[in-house]
Design goal:
Elements lengths: L5 H8 L3 H8 L6 H14 L19 H8 L7 E6 L5 H13 L6 E6 L4 H13 L4 E4 L5 H8 L4 E3 L2 E2 L7 E2 H14 L4 E6 L2 H17 L5 E6 L4 H12 L5 E4 L5 H10 L9 E6 L12 E5 L1 H13 L13 E4 L6
Parallel strand pairs: 1-2, 1-3, 3-4, 5-6, 7-8, 7-9, 9-10, 10-11
Antiparallel strand pairs: 11-12
Helix pairs in contact: 1-2, 1-3, 5-12, 8-9
Protein name: LacI family DNA-binding transcriptional regulator
InterPro entries: HTH_LacI, LacI/GalR-like_sensor, Lambda_DNA-bd_dom_sf, Peripla_BP_I
Organism: Amedibacillus dolichus
Length: about 325
């Protein structure tokens, strides 16, 4: 696993290391350069060393040939595969590492494949894994379930699709939203804005929050803002949100903390005194925020244990375990 240094990140972004250091310290950087750096961070999965987390997981296999080489000389019957759309996403990295830690002392080898959300690429990977007779597959798929089953045959797989208990291995994000809604009710927050990028992952969280308020018959002003992931679009959405008088801003993922802080510093804006900020994920990066972010924390180790239990036993459980993988981790960003 190659370490991504600041020099490599700067080269990837096409900027000097001095400019990169200024950006990471939230100092003013030209907008076009800032956008290039943001894109490089997303593409490489770079995380600051002081965040105390792994910096990046290199893509496991870019081409079919790479998979064949990786299998060569290894006991195929003890191989597991982790197939994801973007292996460098922070949440995907963290889950991969949790699974890797869990099986470190066992006979299993965990292999990584990145599909980039391309259906044909995914089919090629799954066909290769099926031919190699891997022991099981952890899969973030863009294919229909029947297509996956047709390719993998009898090879067991666990789906990582987010939703509301729809399939083995799914994260019940509705349950996470309900927990967050209960917390916001305790804080008497009624005007809520949610900033996200992925509509599929957003829906269940938002429905869970709304359900909590409706059950208590409490008023709620709730709006979702979706951006395309670029720095400029994120800035535009933040400008809209911060022009309102709201109780709380929910960030879909912890990484959004970085552009939020940069936006506030670059335009000399202070977070309104009574506005709270919460992110979803609970990675170590949130502890670097000032003030430290309150998060809806996801227990990746418990989730990895659940996945492996389902994947490696002879018969699968047909429903998700009742255990919730979510908890609230309080920081200093909630009023």
């Amino acid at each position: 696993m190659e370490k991504i240094t600041m020099a490599k990140l700067a080269k990837k972004a096409g900027v000097s290391t001095a400019t990169l250091r200024k950006f990471l310290k939230h100092e003013r950087v030209r907008n076009d350069l800032a956008e290039k750096i943001e894109m490089a961070i997303r593409e490489t999965g770079y995380i600051l060393e002081e965040h105390k987390e792994k910096e990046v997981i290199e893509k496991g296999f870019e081409e079919s040939k790479s998979i064949q080489e990786d299998f060569a000389g290894k006991s195929q019957q003890h191989c597991l595969a982790f197939v994801a759309k973007e292996i460098t996403q922070l949440k995907t990295q963290t889950l991969f590492l949790a699974c890797e830690r869990l099986i470190a002392a066992s006979q299993y080898l965990l292999l990584a494949c990145e599909t980039k959300g391309d259906a044909e690429r995914e089919k090629a990977y799954l066909s290769m894994l099926a031919n190699a007779q891997v022991k099981g597959v952890i899969l973030e798929s863009c294919l229909a379930a029947d297509e996956v089953t047709a390719i993998l045959g009898n090879i067991p797989y666990v789906s990582l699709q987010q939703g509301t208990n729809t399939g083995i291995g799914c994260v019940n994000t509705l349950q996470g939203g309900e927990l967050l809604g209960e917390y916001l009710l305790q804080k008497h927050h009624m005007i809520i804005r949610y900033l996200g990028m992925e509509e599929a992952g957003t829906i269940a969280y938002c429905e869970g929050i709304k359900d909590s308020y409706h059950k208590r018959k409490q008023p709620l002003d709730f709006t979702v803002k979706l951006c395309d992931g670029s720095l400029m679009d994120m800035y535009a959405k933040l400008k809209e949100i911060l022009s309102e008088k709201i109780d709380v801003l929910i960030l879909e993922c912890d990484e959004m903390m970085i552009p939020l802080q940069r936006y506030l510093k670059e335009y000399h804006i202070s977070v309104p005194q009574n506005m709270s900020v919460i992110s979803i994920g609970g990675h170590a990066i949130t502890k670097m925020a000032s003030p430290k972010l309150t998060t809806l924390r996801f227990d990746y180790d418990a989730y990895a244990t659940s996945i492996m239990k389902k994947l490696l036993q002879t018969s699968f459980e047909k429903e998700n375990e009742a255990k919730s993988f979510f908890c609230i981790e309080e920081g200093e960003s909630v009023r």
